[in-house]
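Checklist before submission:
- one chain only
- standard amino acids only
- sequence pasted in full

Submission:
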Amino acid sequence: MSGSGDEGCVSGDEGLPEGWAWATVGEVGEIDLGRQRHPDWHHGPEMRPYLRVANVFEDRIDTADLKEMDFSGVFDRYRLEPGDVLLNEGQSPHLVGRPALYRGEPAEVAFTNSLIRFRAGTGLLPEWALLVFRRHMHFGRFMREARITTNLAHLSAVRLKTVEFPVPPTAEQRRIVDAFAARAARLDSIERTLRNAQITLERLETVVMARASTGLLGSPGPSVPADPPPALGVIDRALPDTAPGWTWARLDEIAAVVSGVAKDSKKQDDSGLPEVPYLRAANAQRAKLDLSHVTRIRVPDKTLDKLRLRAGDVLMTEGGDRDKLGRGWIWEDQIEDCIHQNHLFRARVQEGATHPKLLSWYVNSAARRWFEVNGKQSVNLASISMSKVKKLPVPIPPPDPSSAQEEAVAVGERALRHMAVLSSGCREGIRHVAGLRRALLAEAFSGRLVPQNPDDETAEVLLKRIRAEREDAEAERKAARRAARTKARPALSPAPPPHRAPALDGEQTALPLEFSS
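Returned file contents:
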């Protein structure tokens, strides 16, 4: 069995608590792959629900999206039983082997070959097996056994069988499982609270951006109903109220809107063209830019001059999921000579018309519904045309930029900074919970999580019983297969008697002789 260089990772080369023993996964349980999906089984007389990778999360089976296929004649082979542990066969490298315990819901369900089923031997608790597999996943043990492709890691059933498996006495397994569950429940509760706080803060950020972009954030005065300009081929619906003195205009009345460059593969081999960084839709997130990965493109000089980004340009996405149309943020000259692709729109605001930050806040908050309504949906993606984006109604502050504009921006920035601090605290708390969960897993395998009882049956005795039972079960399966083959074999007809020529008159027929060796 292979060792481990990872902190806290269980390995056959390491010591075990008193009374524990080493085994392999294949020694302590049955390993099976699910049924491969095939177009011929999309319809049939015995349609059954099945689980796949999309349904299996750590210690959770998600039944929100169950698929079905025909399991005629083979359902018993792939039917799940309560206590089966399912592991993801193919997943991103750090999640390969992610396990979940099937507890009987949904009933009468099978599984596909994107999952591996582990069925524990007698005396081995499924909940303990789940802990072992969670530990192997979190500490990279499965990743070392996996075959890595472009974006996925694959864990074969054959390799899984050879992975080490620590076995405590059955009674100690139960004590550890119960103690771990109680402590993990508290960590889960803390994490849920932090994630719910994150969601609340995201909603509050949207409210703050919407009110700041309409002059209402911190404004003591009454709000004024929107009075947008006439609609021209777009659907405005109800627009938000604004502070007194604010008006409305179409985007192309206060900003120059252009699309970006379409990638021309022929030009990418022309070394005479300048190669410059360019932003893709993936770089434009909700009210922020993600510049961790910026690609480069070769374009003519005139294209660079036309599309070179300037500080204050507002970027908006052209396509993607419907609820993400228009998202983006302000360019602040982070990268020299940077342009943008044709899946991003650039709005360059006229000086004094409005502050770019107010426009971007509005686009990422109150205008989100406008983009959804005016976008169009294809098979997998939504998009919005530049002609419609130019007609986006936007709130315009009073003409004096030294008062309304700057005050609205300052108030909005203060509020958003406070929420950013709180959001950062939530993220740090969630990372801390993840670290505590890893530490708890390590403690569960150290022998220190619960007291040990010297009167417990040792793991060596347990393993002998599991191995004996598995050998008996395998012998029974072989006998059943031999009996099935014998039953299926056609009966042999008696051999016909040897052909003999008729004897001639007066001629004695020779009889066959037998010679002993």
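Reviewer check: The mean pLDDT is 89.
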